[in-house]
Every structure is written in C-alpha cells, then in structure tokens.
Amino acid sequence: MIDIHTHILPGIDDGSKDINESLDILRALVNQGVTEVIATPHIITGVYNNTKKIIDEKIEQLKTEIIANKLPIKVYKGAELYYEPNIIEKTKQEELNLAGSNYILIESDLQRFPDNFEKTLYQFQVAGYIPILAHAERFTPFLNDFNRLINIANRGILIQLNSGSFFGNYGENVQKLAYRILQTGCVHFIASDVHHLNTRPVLMKQIYQYLSEHYTEDLAKLLLEGNPERVIHNEPVESMIEGYFEEKPKKTFIEKIRDFFRT
Ligand SMILES: [Fe+2]
Description:
Blueprint: E1 2-6, H1 19-31, E2 36-39, E3 42-43, H2 52-68, E4 74-77, E5 80-82, H3 87-94, E6 103-107, H4 117-126, E7 130-133, H5 141-144, H6 146-154, E8 158-162, H7 172-184, E9 189-191, H8 204-214, H9 217-232, H10 253-262
Parallel strand pairs: 1-2, 2-4, 3-5, 5-6, 6-7, 7-8, 8-9
Helix pairs in contact: 8-9
This protein binds fe (ii) ion.
Residues 5, 7, 80, 134, 193 line the site of fe (ii) ion (FE2).
C-alpha cells in the first residue's frame, strides 16, 4: 500500500516529535503493509511555518535513518496545505505539491469553510494543479449539506478519507459521513493521516481488509494502492464509478412498504 497523507517528519508540526517517533511510525506502516509514503507536514502560516528548505532537510534526515535502520519503505516529500488567501502562490514558490507531481493535498477549518474555499480549489486547477481534499469526512459543513461535497467532487476535486474515520476514531458523525461518502462512490484515496501511534493508529491494513470483505479487493487496491501510485507517477487517477457522482435518493415510505412485501 501507499500512504499519501502522514505527519512523519520530526518536530515540524503536530505529528512526530522526534526522529525516534518518526522511525516508530514508519515501522508501524511497514508492519501494516505500506511500502511507500508521502510525508505531508502542515503548512499553516503563523502556526507551522514550513518551507521547502525545512521540509527538504527533514526528508533527507529521515531517508538517512531509513537506510541506517534498513526499513523497507520509501518516503516522498509532500505537504498538507491549509487554506489561506495566498495559498496558490505559496504552493508554487515553496513547491508544496505531492511527490513532485501536480497533485496537492488541501484542508481548511473543519467547522466552517472559508468564503473562497471552492473558488480557490478551482483556481488551483486553472494553475495546473490537481487538488485532493484531505479527510473530507471530517468537515462539519458536509453533515448538513452533502450535496456540497458532491458538487466539489463533480468539479474534479479528488476526495481523500482517513482510515481511522471508518473505525470511529473521530466520533460517530465522522464515521457515518465516511461510510456515506464511500457508498456514494465519491472517494479516490484512503490514507492514515498518522500523527502519533497512540492517538491515531494507522489502520491501513484494517480498512484494506474491510473493503475487500464488504466490497471488492479491487476497490481496496484502487483506494490504497492504485490511485496513490498514480499520484506518485503524476498520472490521472481512476474513480470507483464512471460519470458523475450522485447521492442515492432516499426511499419514500411507500417504496419501503413495497420493498417489504416484495421480499
Ligand atoms: Fe493531516
């Protein structure tokens, strides 16, 4: 598997605090069957002022330790962008894409989208980037307005969900939303978003098994291997369904009664 969303670089955000913790997380990823990983430290002006220089240095440090510790895992440079008005310029300037590709990983305030959020996503596309919305299931506004998520996806914004959400790591609402998004087919990636092993376990193997058992192994492969690999190779991703995403209309009371008597 390939994990495209992780906070494994030591001491530069709220993820791994030092190189030993980074190596522990990498060992856990290896044990889960992850062979490649994109390090995506937070980029939040005034909170985590990470630059290309800082990220490059940390990546080099981690790569040296991976060789020294003989860990069978490959690390790529990336970033998790937080919405701010000049985020596109900053992305270009600091090369904050994923693994040198045109893909970027972006989030915003989880409780309330900034006014220009969707516009900024589309402007990223105009600038030649392919935005991936990080942990879409964690955004509160989608709870009451699911169509907003569908509209975003139908404009070509890709959707990433966290493995832990499916197992209730972020509460019941997030868990329900994760399954609802999956049911709609409106998802392109599942990643760990690992910060610390004790607070957010990796759970990549568990979600791979769940999808294989309850859907198909092809779907597990698509979301946890195929599409992440396409990001690394800068190739177009595939969707789990063809055409536009649509939420299944809810059955009316009469339809439910008819279904009941049919079975
Ligand atoms: Fe993250």
